[in-house]
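Q: Give me a protein?
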Amino acid sequence: MPKALIPLADGCEELEAVTLIDLLRRASIEVITASLKDAPVHCSRGTRLLADCLLDDVLEQHFDLFVLPGGLPGADNLNTDARIHTLIRRLEAEGCYIAAICAAPKVLVENGILKGRTLTAYPGSLAAIDTSHVHLTQQPIVIDGKVITSRGPGTAMDFSLQLIELLTDKTVRDRVEAGLQRP
């Protein structure tokens, strides 16, 4: 069974975080949510989430997918946490899929793993950082090798379904999508 890690930081976009958690679990992917601190996570719209564990508890584990929900200041809180950057580098070296949505691709840009790669992100979320070493597009979802990025809350469901297909197969993705009764 594939295993995914979703770190949760104060200010994360709850629609993205919950959509990722829910859809990946519907696909029988083991999802571990890990908070940066020992307290409920206060999301960008006031929702509180209780993570499965602390990030420190899973720093040495192997994952098939590491996915960063966006939102502000959630993406900034992820970006300033050295443990997140260490995990990104280690998991990328191990061949793990690395994914980010909305403002969270800024963490990957700042980390350096997107050098020379194509990505997408929430409009304006990368304005304050140097993106001269990446190719930024306006596509809803971009897959560049084992790095997957997406634009924002409106793309969260398609992003999650794409991740399911990458971790499992199209049959599982189609089964999960059929259960959602999307038009």
The longest helix spans residues 14-26. DSSP finds six helices and eleven strands in the chain. The domain at 3-177 is CATH 3.40.50.880 (Rossmann fold). The mean pLDDT is 97.
